[in-house]
Amino acid sequence: MQNSDSISLLRRGLLVLLTIGAVGLIGELVLLEHYEDTPQMIPFGLLTFTVIVTAYHWWDGERRSLRLFQAVMLLLVIAGPLGMFLHLKGNYEMDREFDPTLLGLDLWISVIRGEAPALAPGTLVQFGLLGLLYAYKHPALSSKDP
Q1: How far is CA 106 from CA 28, 93, 96, in A?
Q2: What's the rounded Cα separation, in Å, for the pair 78 and 100?
């Protein structure tokens, strides 16, 4: 039984790390005023939903709450590359408007180093994968309940 207790403790630790990270990132987005338009609200919504669903699953622990948790984690994994694309697109448009003569490698270096951090939305992918790692072979998935 000690092995299953250790695994359970590790799973709880993953949920704590996920929650701390999500709350921290919400705070960072607020500080960065990342709410100027509707697409910028997507990470707020997903991260808030992450915290709520994680807390719900923490107390419930059943298959239904785990499936909801997995769905939210999958949304985070999808939202990360979408956010990266939007950051790169915004940087590209800003660079082209600011200096239309900028081309080739110089343009792409400028886009990657632009005002919107190109890789920052990748944090959502990390959180989603952390959550999916938590759910991997979770005991609640082997139960017969729907």
Answers
A1: 30, 14, 11
A2: 32
Answer whether 0.70 is exceeded by the pTM.
Answer: yes
CA–CA dist 65, 52 (Å, integer):
11
| Of 50, 57, 17, nearest in space to 139 by CA | 57
pLDDT in tens, 4-15: 788 889 999 999
pLDDT at 146: 54
| 8 A C-beta contact, residue 135 and residue 73 | yes
Q: What separation in angstroms does the CA of 68 have from each of 27, 105, 131?
A: 24, 43, 11
Burial of 8 (0-12, 13-18, 19+ CB in 10 A): exposed
Query: pLDDT below 50 — which residues of the chain?
Result: none
Residues making up the chain, counted from first to last: 146
